[in-house]
Specification:
Shape: globular
Strand order of the largest sheet: 2-1-3-4-5-6
CATH topology of the largest domain: Rossmann fold
Distance between the termini: 15 Å
CATH superfamily of the largest domain: Glycogen Phosphorylase B
Number of helices: 13
Oligomer: single chain
Largest sheet: 6 strands, parallel
């Protein structure tokens, strides 16, 4: 199979999964596929039978199915794709790996279906975690449009006031490190901490220096207001706020290793990094994080990551091509 038919027209592509990435690839691949991309909406509340019947309409018509976000279960739809000789690419992104670890520890018999799928992992450690449960995945980073936007402009200078930015959703505060943020606010009462995502409904009396901003569609100005981005997740893929912060020359502290960012596995190391950065700030010695931005420019441009995925599609459909 090849990306193009003998007539030169692109063969249709089926994309499902996380809406943000689905829309990105529809836009990015539109010129190549000339609108021949199927992206049916598969709502979470849909029954398995309805999802199966929906996908069954498209699988015979396409030459590849790209699912963004891991999938568990008996794998009936993957068996159906195999019946139509339609290759399937499953792109794991983060928490879906935790779900898979739990599921396949109880249903190892369903792993056989997974072995017939091409697996990609959005972060190198996700590939390691998948390997532990018997799924071989290649590390393939996903593109972020916001990163492309931030890299396309000159990074604003670090602000006069040292501020911390973090992302915490309303329903999973503990998973995203709320306890660490709370301790930071108490240990550094003069520092403002901006929280995007949540409105703070999960806490009755937050410290006065924690400011909940809720969900924002445009975060460029918020990143510009801050010197450092903190992401103390229990488990993660390639964190979006970390990449966005580095793209604007901000410092970043994360529970996972990433070039240009500080690693903090616990509160003690988090506090030490904040204290060090804040000390440099007070001495007027803190400058843009050029190292972090340089890495993003060289390795994480969304147009390059998108092209890499397209090349992988071509290699998958035409083995031996480069």
């Amino acid at each position: 199979m090849e990306l193009l038919s003998r007539s030169g027209e692109p063969k249709p592509l089926l994309i499902t999964g996380i809406e943000y990435f689905v829309q990105h690839f529809i836009e990015s691949f539109s010129r190549i596929y000339q609108g021949r991309i199927f992206a049916p909406e598969l709502a979470q509340e849909m029954s398995r039978f309805r999802k199966l019947s929906t996908l069954a309409k498209y699988l015979p018509k396409v030459n590849l199915w790209y699912q963004i976000g891991g999938s568990i279960g008996p794998g009936r739809v993957f068996k159906l794709a195999n019946l139509f000789n339609t290759p399937v690419v499953l792109h794991w992104v983060g928490t879906d790996v935790l779900v898979a670890q739990d599921y396949f520890s109880k249903h190892s018999e369903h792993l056989q279906v997974q072995s017939k799928i091409v697996h990609w992992a959005g972060a190198p450690w996700l590939a390691d975690e998948l390997k532990q449960i018997g799924i071989n995945a290649q590390f393939v980073p996903l593109p972020l449009k916001t990163v492309g936007y931030f890299l396309s402009q000159e990074p604003p200078p670090l602000p006069r006031q040292f501020k911390i930015l973090t992302y915490i959703p309303e329903r999973r505060a503990a998973f995203y490190g709320w306890e660490h943020i709370l301790r930071l606010a108490e240990d550094f009462p003069t520092l403002d901490i901006l929280v995007i995502g949540a409105r703070g409904r999960f806490v009755s009396s937050p410290p006065p220096n924690i400011h909940f901003l809720g969900w924002l569609h445009d975060t460029a100005n918020i990143f510009a207001e801050c010197s450092v981005v903190v992401r103390m997740t229990t488990h993660d893929g390639y964190g979006g706020t970390i990449q966005e912060g580095l793209s604007l020359g901000r410092y970043a502290i994360w529970t996972y290793p990433f070039p240009g960012a500080f690693l903090a596995k616990d509160y003690v190391s988090l506090r030490a990094h904040i204290d060090s950065l804040y000390t440099l700030h007070r001495r007027n010695l803190l400058t843009l994080n050029e190292k972090g931005r340089a890495y993003m420019l060289q390795h994480m441009r969304p147009e390059n990551l998108t092209a890499n995925i397209l090349r992988r599609f071509q290699n998958l459909l035409s083995p031996g091509t480069q």
